[in-house]
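General statements about sequence and structure are easier to judge against a single worked case. No coordinates are needed to read the tokens, only the vocabulary itself. The sequence in question and its structure tokens are set out directly beneath this paragraph.
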Amino acid sequence: MIKHGRITALVFCFLLLHFSPTHSNTVCIIGSGIGGASVAHFLRHYSAIYHPSQSPIGQINIFERNGVVGGRMATVTVSGETFEAGASILHPKNYHALNYTKYLNLQLKTPKLTDDSLSLGIWDGHKFVYKTFNSKSKLPIVQRLVSLANSIMIFFRYGFSLFRMSSFVEVTVNNFLRYYEGFNSRPVFDSVEEMLKWAGLYNLTTQTLGEELVEAGLSPLLIQELVTVITRINYGQSVNISGLAGAVSLAGSGGGLWSIEGGNWQMAAGLINRSDVVLHLHEEIESVSYLGDVYVLNSTKGKSYNCGVTVVATPLDELNIDFNPRISVPPRKLQHTHATFVRGLLSPAYFGLNLLSDIPDLVGTKESPDVPFSSISILKQHENDMTYKIFSREPMTDALLDKFFSSRKETIKINWAAYPHYHAPEKFAPFILDGQHLYYVNAFENAASTMETSAVAAENIARLILSRLSSGVDLSSSNLTSVDSNPSELHSEL
């Protein structure tokens, strides 16, 4: 007997094989970040596999209001050296990003701050409440001893709560890994809620991270200090963020983290270059109108584009796109993170210290009105000074920077509308904004916002588009699966 999953997989193949491309299957994507680039990639990839002779997808247009692709993946140049300015780190189990890297022949690099010998200090606005040992020695034996001493010290402060925190993160990551399963066991999802419930992640969006960690048995001290430091660095928010966003944030503080040599934006650029896309730079979409069988997109350049499918792959929250008919999405605020890059020297006196070497390599902060920044970290040590990266919720004025620094040679300030302002319980925008063919990748960001979660949402959107292109057949059910794929081979296939 043929299993239900195999039947639905064959149905999916049949529909792709019998869809006749017309002018109406032009796909228009608004936004050239990792989400938009991933939608284009997966549309081309799956069409090429299942319909090699004639693709069900026609021309793909990508519209980017800026002059470069990448969205919130971007770099900054300080004194001739390049550093990540936006989305900066990837997890070792971010399989889509890893596969993009192999597919595009990009080079991985490991951030310096993953080195356990580097020092951490937790600042409460008046003093360091916790500070690890630091050694400037480059001898491996010395670094190992310092790392061991720091491990013992952190255990004495936080105890077995550290293992409970690790277990909480591990369970969440393992549930998230279900999104890489083969198509026979992984449905196409037409809502964020459905997607989260299937993976066992939805309940984490109904409580705050603080509530989840208390239930997991973590000590108040660990939550108020180390966990808070991590959420302030990764999401610019406190432990009042939703549990899933918090778990993702904690996962982003573990070992094995990596990025792309030369800038993470190259993933988006490479996917776009290889997906047979017509790229429209410096072209912002002002309006999207559905005329019954086609979407008309009007841009700031006075041009109009007819699209059978339209994908919004950028947060709608601070855009002024006029949708006709109007769409309805839950109100959402974006959390702005101000990234300030400084080449110079920090002032030991500001931190109540005597020597510059006494300042930890990474200064994290507790949740307090007395703290004007979220974190300060060393990006590079030069011969006579250093390059630092500061995260803050508000702009860093020059007067404030002069309190932190004894000298400043160069200062660059960037304001990122970085991610949603999380709260629990979360409410989600729909993946399908109008019941037709207007899709929203960033609806998933209310669950968690990372490069990889954008890619996971984009892959589902691509499958959703392909499964719904044939009219007259109910393809919205989550029971619809795509062609068979071996889960053990999926990571190298995509």
